[in-house]
Amino acid sequence: MDDEKYFKNLTNRERAIFEGGISMGALYHQFVGTPINLDTCDSLEKAIEESILLQPAIIDVDVKLDKSMIKQACGSAGYTSLEGNMLNIEITTKVEDIAVVTCISYNEELQYPLMYIKE
Amino acid sequence: MDDEKYFKNLTNRERAIFEGGISMGALYHQFVGTPINLDTCDSLEKAIEESILLQPAIIDVDVKLDKSMIKQACGSAGYTSLEGNMLNIEITTKVEDIAVVTCISYNEELQYPLMYIKE
Amino acid sequence: MDDEKYFKNLTNRERAIFEGGISMGALYHQFVGTPINLDTCDSLEKAIEESILLQPAIIDVDVKLDKSMIKQACGSAGYTSLEGNMLNIEITTKVEDIAVVTCISYNEELQYPLMYIKE
Amino acid sequence: MDDEKYFKNLTNRERAIFEGGISMGALYHQFVGTPINLDTCDSLEKAIEESILLQPAIIDVDVKLDKSMIKQACGSAGYTSLEGNMLNIEITTKVEDIAVVTCISYNEELQYPLMYIKE
Fold it and tell me: What 3-state DSSP class applies to D115?
């Protein structure tokens, strides 16, 4: 990356965490609101994965939208808007030899979608 | 559609124009900003098409992102953010027997992406 | 407007309906997902109104976010994401002497936020 | 915060960096695309600041949109769409006694808007 010198104040792990956070915040606010139903999950999952893979330090993106929530939310209109609660996503960032997995999933206890770093 | 009674004050053509406008405004503001390069155009085009096809009265969506603009905008980062200028889209709406084609494309004269109804 | 010639195939009323649809679709997909609680409704309502007023043919925008829905949705996190259900908005478009009011509000019968033209 | 136990695998500094990254990615992809001109910068800056302040660990948000870029981009339409290049933003996150400042600004050398941690 040409931008390396701008990150000298971060350890490799800190940078991996930073880039994971950016990309998770990015995809949440880019794609929440997209019209969706069960038939279109595949194409949206793929578009999210491919677009987020372009961002710095990302080496893997795995997107699983919650089909049962989506099915339930599709009322008389036959489709719904993608919500944060429906996101199950893991983004792997790697900076030199340090890899970090940033996740979002709906947290039953907190009752909202939590973004966190996997152990 | 269950919502028919709410549109009694519109002719079929007016409703087709209304729904075309809604969906064009929707997709512009939903997807502008998405990270993109030449390798990810296909998956984003498909996701836009499938998601917008879900909306009321839409019977066809054809999305062609401007590859030469995208290529040019991809600088040292290897990708760019999708901009309105890059959109070439036709949405066909149909209400009973009346079909209308709503378009967006970059207008050289006006120097911005124009949304309009095709003759 | 410099773009008048591109709309010769529309009546003034059709164009007013088209621009109302575009702007309603636009604001829905631009702002749904924004972090919000009761304290920030005012600034978000104002930003939506001012930004949408810039779009073609718009002469008035009135945004009222549903405070009771927002309050209820703010759980342990103290805030929520703006959803389509929370929007009560009227956009007035005018083309020459013809004005049209485009609305969105949550429709109890349909159980989703309906976009429609006011009588 | 009730969610503290989910972040035991991060130092305070790592969590402050993570939350700063999330919020910077979030606001970029939430607000890029918003219609804007010089008259509406104030209301959009305020709405961005107030909404992002709601997110976890954020104690300060300072948004300065680039007025000269915005002015230049407003062509015959009298307004433009907010682009990443126009963002000058600092987000301060604090976790216990550790504060971190996450920034975005257009980087002349890289020719794109860079997100980074301030020294």
Answer: strand
